[in-house]
Amino acid sequence: MQMTVSEVLARFVSETDFSALNNDNVVAAKTTISDCIGCTVAGSATEVGRIVRRVAQSSGGEGKATIIGGVSGASAQAAALVNGAAAHALDYDDILWSLYGHPSVTVLSATLAVAETEGASGRDLIQAYAIGVEIIGKLGRAVNPQHYEHGWHATASIGVIGAAAACAKLMRLTEKQIAMALGIAASQASGVRRNFGTMTKPLHAGNAARAGVFSAELARDGFTSSLVAFEGEFGWARTLNARTVPDSDGLQVMLGKPWELTEPGIVLKRYPSCGGTHCALDAMIAIKDQHNLKLEEIERIDCDASPFAHKVLLYPRPVSGLEGKFSMEFCLAVAAIEGSAALRHFDEAWINDPRVQALLPRISFNPRADLEPAISADAVPAEVTVFARGQAFSQKVLVPSGDPRNPMSTADRRAKFMDCADGILETDVAEKLFNDWERLDQVAQLDELLSPLRPQN
Prior knowledge:
Elements: H1 5-15, H2 23-44, H3 47-58, E1 62-65, H4 76-88, H5 104-118, H6 122-143, H7 146-149, H8 154-157, H9 159-170, H10 175-186, H11 200-220, H12 236-239, H13 248-254, H14 261-265, H15 278-291, E2 298-305, H16 307-310, H17 321-324, H18 328-338, H19 348-351, H20 354-359, E3 363-367, E4 382-388, E5 391-397, H21 410-421, H22 427-438, H23 447-450
Parallel strand pairs: 2-3
Antiparallel strand pairs: 2-4, 4-5
């Protein structure tokens, strides 16, 4: 008798152990986990992080999990919610193109909360994280781009499934219980893209992480779900406008062969803005640097990009820092002025900067069919042309910096982590923390990595 999707996924979760990961997989997992921890630290100090933390902490519920920048002794659900929202608050976190979204903010935030609660090791955390990312990548390959283009925020609507799987692994659920947890998670899939550029977008990630924990907890206590919750009529795939309904036989062949961690691999963000801006930002910064262009020399900027970018970048004239992260025009204006796009640029002061406001009307953002990615997107290509000094300076970028094919160096990753921690952690604490998370597979207890992330009295 053919297994269902839930049963195939549950068997993969149950039978996969750390030995299934090769060295490249482990290094990739450690790299992305470390990056997401830095993003969570930075996000904990934002208004998004503060509001969600305050509401979650006031709701009570005790446990053994850490809310980064908040309390220890929180419930796993509360920690997953707050840390997931904080991790995504600045849109500085990683991308998995097969998912069409951000894998770590959901999977890691849930996994970390449960791993701490269960007394898991660093290797246990890596194993569960890799399993969760693998599942959401393979599901993403089946359902996208139609699922995403229909309006679903795949980070949450698919991410919740990986979060539940990872938590179930750490809780050592039986194969049957894992299948139930996945079906429960399928009914908690949510997140609409119209909320991009608002506080609700990062809430999608936190809520999906929380729902993943909740699904596994319910299943552990005997809660049930349909075994055909994914592929059945009125199930997850058809309801959420999937390109294809996931096939159990196909999943059996694909899971872990190869691992999503290394194929296509996870993109680390160099800029704290939507990934749809990154190729264009690389191009703009390269032009400015190569030709030493001054702002007063720039007559206009034309940006041709993948049509996909127009479906994501919703704010040609942003009025807030959050909207600015989803504005190609604003990002290019900042890069033209500063030669960079950093955390400090995405606030109301920069939105209202007279230089930005003067440049915005002279920036065009156009879709171009030959820059459209394949079905499983692997970047958002762009070509930028700057008109200055009576000349046209052009640069095309197909793969952004931070992509596994154009990776950030360890020094670059360290600098990003330190930027995220600036003003929140002492410099020596942040430097040690980066080094410690880089050796996650050697850590027996997670407390030594998490204690510096709790407020020190």
